[in-house]
Amino acid sequence: MDCFTHPIKCKLLLELYSAGKATAKQLAEIYNDIPQATLYRYLKRMTNDGILKVVEENQIRGTVEKTYAVAIDLESSGQELIGENAGDAYMQMFMQYVFGFIKRFQEYCKKPDIDIPKDQSGFSLAPIYATNEELASAIDEYAKIIQPLYKNRPTADRKSRTIGLIISPPENHNK
């Protein structure tokens, strides 16, 4: 779960998921805002944690170049959340998700020169009534809007941001 809440690990994970596989050199070219030592440290940690796997090793001028790929099933249906511990596991996942946002907001708010309107940071709640079908349709539309942004690469005018979507469990009342 740390990979989903850590900005650098999340970038690397999403890139490897999209590309299928990549070397550290290729990742460094794409994400030139990540220091090389940090990139290698996170690739090693994510491999040791079983998030990534080495799918190729090539000898290049006295060193071994590794090619990485995602080792976990990112398209899991959530079946592991069914059973007697489902509520506990789901709550743990949600807390990690929320704490990831809290950490980012905390770091941002500590900066002396924040400009909330200029930085376009914010949050809101939008209580809705929807059938399961209406909600599924809205989520599909949201995905269509956000999906193209995943392919953007860092540039001088692009800032790294995190957008989250939380859908609460349904409330038990009939109105």
Which SSEs are present, and which pair or pack?
Elements: H1 2-5, H2 7-19, E1 22-23, H3 24-30, H4 36-48, E2 52-60, E3 63-70, H5 86-110, H6 116-119, H7 132-150
Antiparallel strand pairs: 1-3, 2-3
The ordered string of helix (H) and strand (E) elements is: HHEHHEEHHH
Give the biggest sheet: 3 strands, antiparallel
End-to-end separation = 36 Å
Using only C-alpha atoms, the radius of gyration works out to 19 Å
How big a fraction of the residues is strand? 5-15%
> How many beta-strand elements?
3
Q: Roughly how much helix do the residues carry, as a percent range?
A: 40-55%
Q: Class by helix and strand content?
A: mainly alpha
| Shape call | globular
Write out the CATH superfamily name of the domain at 2-70.
Answer: Winged helix-like DNA-binding domain superfamily/Winged helix DNA-binding domain
Detail the poorly predicted runs: none
Please name the defining characteristics of this protein.
175 residues; mainly alpha; Arc Repressor Mutant, subunit A; three-stranded antiparallel beta sheet; 3 strands; 11% strand; globular
At a glance:
The protein is mostly helical.
Can you tell me about this structure?
By secondary structure, this protein is mostly helical. Among the domains are: 2-70, Arc Repressor Mutant, subunit A (Orthogonal Bundle); 77-119. Helix content is 49%, strand content 11%. It has 7 helices and 3 strands; from the N terminus they run H-H-E-H-H-E-E-H-H-H. The chain has helices at residues 2-5, 7-19, 24-30, 36-48, 86-110, 116-119, 132-150, and strands at 22-23, 52-60, 63-70. A 3-stranded antiparallel beta sheet has the order 1-3-2. The protein is globular, with a radius of gyration of 19 Å. The model has no long low-confidence stretch (mean pLDDT 84).
